[in-house]
Amino acid sequence: MSVEVEKAKVIDRFSDTVFGRILRKEIPCKFIYEDDTCVAFHDTNPQAPVHFLVIPRKPITSIADTEESDSILLGHILYVAKNVAEQQGLDEGYRIVINNGIHGAQSIYHLHVHVLGGRQLKWPPG
User: Fold this and answer.
1) How many domains does the chain have?
2) Where are the beta strands (DSSP E) in 5-92?
3) Which range marks the domain in which residue 99 is found?
4) Mind telling me the catalytic residues?
5) Is residue 125 part of a domain?
């Protein structure tokens, strides 16, 4: 069983997150993209040759906790993911993943989008 699956089983979904600390600049992080709404940075535990995250500045716990008023933000995050994927040279394709809840192996309860590429990805996943 993966480390992320194990972490997802025991995490306190309402505690402060590493992403909150990164956004507050308590933890140093080199952003590969930044605007007033979201940031993107490389994953510290990459699962593909290119693996970066896009996270909103707004502290949304998970995709399941979004509301209709978040739809513009969600669209922007996907648009940023696409643009950063292009900048990262993922011309042959990539996968976008949003983990949600325990069964989705969500281990950090701050909404985040994984973008993975740089090699042929397998299907079906997990």
Assistant:
1) 1
2) 33-34, 38-42, 50-56
3) 3-117
4) 112
5) no
CATH of the domain at 35: 3.30.428.10
Domain-embedded: residue 123: no
Burial of 70 (0-12, 13-18, 19+ CB in 10 A): middle
**Among the listed residues 33, 17, 20, the one whose alpha carbon sits nearest the alpha carbon of residue 115:** 33
Tell me how far apart the alpha carbons of residues 75 and 70 are, in angstroms, rounded to a whole number: 9
Regarding pTM above 0.85, the answer is yes
Q: How far apart are CA 24 and CA 89, in angstroms?
A: 29
Instruction: Indicate the range of 6-10, 44-48, 71-75 predicted with least confidence.
Output: 6-10
Task: List own/partner pairs for 39-46 with CB under 8 A and 24 or more apart.
Answer: 40/80, 40/81, 40/84, 43/114
At residue 6, the pLDDT reads 64
**CB-based contact 81:113 (threshold 8 Å):** yes
Residue 44, in any domain of the structure: yes
